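Record type: monomer structure entry
Structure origin: computed from sequence
Chain ID: A
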Amino acid sequence: MKQRAGAPVSLFAELDRDDGSPLYRRAYRRIREMILRGALLPGSRLPSTRSLAGDIAVSRNTVEAAFAHLEADGFITRRVGSGTFVAASLPGLLAGGERGPGRKTSKRPKATLLTRPSGNDALSSRGRIMAVAGPSADADSDATFGVCRPSLDTFPLPLWNRLAARRGRRLGDTLLDECDAAGLGDLRSAIAEYLNAARGVRCSAGQVIVVTSTQQALDLIARVLIDAHDEIMVEEPCYAGATAAFRNAGARLVPVRVDEHGLDVEHGAGISPTARLCYVTPSHQFPLGVTMTLARRLALLAWAERARAWIVEDDYDSEFRYTGHPLAALQGLDEHARVLYVGTFNKVMFPALRLAYLIVPLDLVDPFSNAREWLDGFTAAGMQAVMADFMRRGHFVQHIRRMRAIYHERRDALCAAVERHAGDRVRLGPADGGMHVVGWLPRRTDVTQLRRRVAQRDMYLRDVAVYYASRPPQPGVLLNFASATPAAIDRGVAAVSRLIG
């Protein structure tokens, strides 16, 4: 008789012992050990990822990652509509049909040569990992507090349309033909000039690689610079898109704690002395919102030079800072060409634009340009041309200045609403910049239940736990203020406060 779903929850009992590896990796090893010992029998059913995540208070992504690796190694099988089961034919010690004492496994029909794989069985090892949905899969783009959503109702659409129409009227062969894989020259020059002036980045137009998104930039970096099993230091907590890009490349992720000063460089160098790369969001750490101090930035650069490692600086929303001036980029402090800088227009402008950029050291320009060409050729030249015009005519800087004022007002509205409606139950994280703030909740809050209830009121809250490899210090959610008016923010906070209880 097969074990019932939910029976093996105790197999996670020893995961709290921190051996320096990510939580999903410890879960993977524990389940594998029980399978090899015969404590989990061939064909027995495992609990769902949602059930396990809730029972052991970790993110569902943590359990999904562990299951993905177990499936890739052949220890479990997943059947759409049926569940997750210990594989009937096991690798390693059980490949010969080893059984637990006194148990028999049911006979199954042998597959024929005509049988075609379906579902996850049809995927490669890398495909099984990539098939796990990210935290944005359940996001409601129109809901209040939707994560990292810019304000679309305040975008200067008539101006943009006029620029697009002007480009369309004088559309030449250069915009109909293939484009340079690294991007349109006009846009690359405009990006370099803007970054030099506004972000303190030191680069030429030739170092700019135009891509469609931050995610594509990270995927390109992973393809060019990372081999399977390389150690990659990431922030703890960390942007899920970054962990996905590096995990998909077969890298071993090493979470490094983040405190009020940013990434703890000394801690990271101690637990991962041979790391190939470090991913950071120094100007506005995602999702916590802290800023990496100058001392930590210099320490990180010194580590990269000593270790001959790379630093990926994700500068996703640094234009929006409400205390003092925007901080200069880490890349501008780099004297040894160890930093790759990633920025995006999709959050500053509008999500459907699909334009972002990657600044690489001079020695990497040709390898990255060639890899970009092999990846998908180039980014559509027409939209690049309109964006270049938008920047060249001064509209981009004006847009940022205007949106900074609007977001500042909405940030203040969020802070005031939380103080007014939930000051005794919600503690806000750093709010000096960006488009969101973390709201820390009472320790006994059931975030899953809270998210379900607020969704019924057309609001979206993302659990901060999805960005942690281990447990977060306490329950928390991301509160995006950029896409909602002050009045909507006040109503939303009041509603969430009532639901917290």
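Annotation 1: Confidence is low (pLDDT under 50) at residues 1-9, 91-116.
Annotation 2: The chain has three domains: 7-101, 157-394, 398-500.
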